[in-house]
Structures are given as structure tokens and as C-alpha cells.
Amino acid sequence: MSYQSTLLPDYVGLVQNTSINFYKNSTNILDAFDTYLAEINECIEFEKAKVTSQPIESLGNLFNALNSSNFIVPDFNAIGEESGVKKLDNTFQLYFIEKYQSLSKEYKALVDKLIDGNTYFKNFSDDVGIITDSVSVLDSNTNPYYDIYNAYYFNSSNLPPTLMFKVSKNELIVSSTFSKYSDALLKRNLQGLQSTKKVLGISISVVNKLTAKTSHGENLVTDILHYDRVILYQLSVLATLKTILGNLSGFILFYKLLNPKDQDSQRKSIDFIYQITNMEKLSIRVDALKNQLDKVQLSTIQVMGNS
Fold first, then answer.
1. What is the pTM of this model?
2. pLDDT digits (tens, 9 = 90+) for 136-156
3. Looking at the structure, do residues 97 and 171 belong to the same domain, yes or no?
4. Residue 246: inside a domain, yes or no?
5. What range does the domain containing 307 cover?
């Protein structure tokens, strides 16, 4: 997965020194990241874990600490001294979860053994929350043909569930508008194939909501009962998911509602309103910066070794 809404974790993750004291003494860097010293310290611990004599144990202990504390980590004041605790926000939670997801299958199996009551660092579907959606279920396969102008049900978007929160509002409007007219034309053309009766010499369809409970071999019955079941069990399924997923449910709900590719600043996830520029170009610049820093650090080591 990656539903990044900011590249801040990537910038903070460009750790080139293994001590928080470096940032305390470097006032120009501290001015840029003075409110993210807790996050920098966690990135330092992550980098340390990868180069210790027992990297698996070190990584496992780090992920275990984040999981057990629900991402509550030590915080630091303006002069770099430990001053309490701080809960990492969703963007940094995603950052460390993706660090875990990037481990090989063998590494994950070993790291998992060191995480007590693992809630966050586990494999899960990016679209686990989609099963509680009702809007995306209503398409041409479920919206009944007798409901030509959507008098009984909403206009369908005809977008697959995994795209509902990955397109802009404008694209949703366009999709719904096309569906409204094209579906109506389809339903009108199929109306004559449904059971009808004569009323004042006019053929009127006798297909209705109850027809879906009969055999699907006649009357071109759609699966509207599936939509009704989704509505009926939506809240109970959501409550069960929250029970099963625990604290992870809030994390998934946040990113399920977040659309990082939407240019509409009014789109939000819970109470989080975001602005976005060109994420792809910024990602390239971050990667280039990291590669440049790595090369500088490597050349310095080589010079020292040669001397």
C-alpha cells in the first residue's frame, strides 16, 4: 500500500547520524524539525536496528515497542532533551508499517515472533474496509431494471469499490452522470423483455422488488437483494471488523477515506483536511536526495579508510 498524503516521513527518515544529540547541536536542522524530534529518534532507532549484530531481534523489539504502546514514543524538547511522550500521527504510523511490510517473508516470520499481541504489523488487505460500503455495491448488476430513472434507488457510479476513494470528485460526478443516462437507456430497452400487464392498452412492467425473491431465470431480475443485505448488515459488520482489527480499524478507516490523488482540498479523512502538490515529482526528488547523501557518506568512509 501507499496512501501518502505528505512526504514529511520520508524527509525525517533521511537519517545520516545515529544520535539525537547531532540534531540538538545542529540548530539549522533543529529549526526545520524541532517538532519532529520524536519521529527522528524513532528513525534513528530503526537505522541502528539494521546494523546491529542481531538485526532481527533489534527490529522485532522496535516494532514490538511501537505496537505495544500504540505508537506512543518518547518526545524531546527544543534542546533535544527527553521531555515526555508523543503519539505518532497516521502518516508516521503508515511509514513504519510500510517499513515492516517491506521486509522479506522470512524476516517477517522471525520478527513476528518478537511482537506481543501484534495489531499493526501484520498482512492485511488495503481494501478491508470496502466490504462495509453500500454506495459502490449499487451498479448495473444490482440496480433493478424496472427502476428506470432511479426513483427507488440512488444513481449508481458504476465504479469498482477499490476506486471509490481513489478518484476525484469531478470524476465521480462524470461517472454518475454517464451512468444515469446510459443505464436509463439500457433499462428502457430491456423493459419489453420483462413481465408486463395491459392497463388501458398500455403495457406496464409488473416486476418489482419482490420479484428478486423468485427464480432468476425470468424477468431479467438483478441482484438487488445483495444491496439490501449490505444495508441491513453494514453496521454489524463494521462493529465486528473493529472488534477483530482493534486499534488497526481506526488506521484503516483513516486511509480508506483519504484520497491522496484528489486535488480537491475539501476532501478529508475524519478531521484531516490536506493539500497536495505533485507527489510523483517530490518522490523523485526525495529519492535523489537520499541517493546523493548515501554517496557522500560512502565516499567519506572510503577516504578515511584509505588514509
1. 0.60
2. 788 878 888 888 888 888 878
3. no
4. no
5. 281-307
